[in-house]
Design goal:
Elements: E1 9-13, E2 16-19, H1 20-40, H2 51-70, H3 79-94, H4 108-136, H5 147-182, H6 187-232
Amino acid sequence: MELSPDQTIFWQYSFITINLTLVTTWGIMLLLVVLSWLVTRKLKSDIQISRWQCFLEMIVTGINAQIEEVGLSKPERYIGFIGTLFLFIFASNFCIIFPGYRPPTGSLSTTTALAISVFLAVPFYGISKSGVWGYMKSFLQPTWIMLPFNLIGEISRTLALAVRLFGNIMSGGMIVAILLSISPFIFPVIMNLLGLLTGTVQAYIFSILATVYIAAAVRNSREKTKSNVITTQ
């Protein structure tokens, strides 16, 4: 039994490898790009809009609302990154309804890449809010002794993001494979339906955690900047 789509290799030369994870990842990205183009090419600002535009606006409004509830006052600044994370993970997991499909999120390399994206986005948004020094000072709170622990916390939560998503998706695929060998008609259908629910929940959790980390970086930087202003006054 193959535990990861990384093990399905289509072509390999030296250190260059094209495996199932790479193929499905690029396939999902292409699908999202095409769907985005189809949905957005005829956007209107009239009272009467198409069903696709209405559906798109519901998704954007919902993501904006979630971002704002976490604590980011201007969600339009973050929806490009967080919304893309959610849609990619959701689409990757949703496509398990197709026979023979294996989600790229069942590969630790994919979930690690997503987690690293979050790891880089946190300081990016923190620095853009209050500058390099203002963001770096947040690692010295409440005292400079906490610096190594805060750095370890940044790395460990990135690892947790990757392993959590990978473990949930991989375990679901293994259960379906086992049930398929026992009863090839009934249980796999039920498990695929549960897999759709689990995949949606995991996409939501991953994107919400990313939002929480970004909000914490922005809030800590903002509070540090305010305290400096008060001190100078």
